[in-house]
Amino acid sequence: MSRRRLIAGNWKMNKTPQETAAFVEDFAPRVASFFEIEVLLIPPYTSLEPASRQLVGTSIALGAQDLHSEPSGAYTGAISAQMLAACGCRYVLVGHSERRHVFGDDDATVRRKLGSALDGRLLPILCIGETIDERRGGATPEILTRQLTVGLDGLDAGAMKSIVVAYEPVWAIGTGETATPEQAQEAIAGIRAWLSGRFDEPTAGRARILYGGSVKPGNAAELMRLPDVDGVLVGGASLDPEAFAAIAQAGRSVVESE
Asked: Which CATH number does 6-257 carry?
């Protein structure tokens, strides 16, 4: 079953609106003809609205790094799905490892945020992954199953049409370590098998599952050639327009070779 590759760049807490404008001016022409894949930029909140205006007329999608679980209210410093949509966002990350491990988002919080994203007509990217101690202890399947079970609790197969899953081994994020192709494929094939059991085989076959964790131009193609990997969630390398365009080119080349 054909699934469109998604190349997503999560900038985390980097780039001012001015720096974002310079990036888009450089980057957009580099991927202007990449219609075979979907390219997604995920800048900080302060850059969303100006980036949205700058991306008009391009095929590049815009996403946000997080959202609050409520649509409005007395939540100082938070931002809602409706606000993100009004800024031009199509996607939003939920459950990124830094939200889980730095800011304390537990599985139940992630589930509420995912529901808020769906209610706000955003496409959530549900991030899941294990720590190095969990992997060394052989707990990877257990951790991924728990995060999926709670994160997708109560949803039907129809909702999965709007959800992307991103497997991000925590030990590979920002460390320079990358899961081997065998490790990435094993984990993501396990996620797809879980989706098949939770929903059905067609739903699992349609679901897009990304790999994230120290993705670079040099390893992107190898990762995206894996049968169950439908794209990449890129951190540090997405801050450089040339490097991120090279990763997008790798995804495009893989699609063209299939």
From this structure: 3.20.20.70
Does the structure show a pLDDT above 70 at 135? Answer: yes
- The DSSP secondary structure of the chain, one letter per residue, reads -----EEEEE--S---HHHHHHHHHHHHHHTTT-TTSEEEEE--HHHHHHHHHHHTTSS-EEEES---SSSSSS-TT---HHHHHHTT--EEEES-HHHHHTS---HHHHHHHHHHHHHTT-EEEEEE---HHHHHTT-HHHHHHHHHHHHTTT--TTGGGG-EEEE--GGGSSSS----HHHHHHHHHHHHHHHHHHS-HHHHHH--EEEESS--HHHHHHHHTSTT--EEEESGGGGSHHHHHHHHHHHHHHHHH-
Is residue 68 among the annotated active site residues? no
Mean pLDDT of the chain: 96
The pLDDT, as a whole number, for residue 177 is 75
Identify the active-site residue in 38, 68, 96, 98. Answer: 96
pLDDT at 178: 75
Pairwise pLDDT comparison (41 vs 175), residue with the higher score: 41
Q: Which pTM value belongs to this model?
A: 0.97
Which one is catalytic: 38, 98, 130, 168? Answer: 168
Residue 98 bears catalytic tag: no
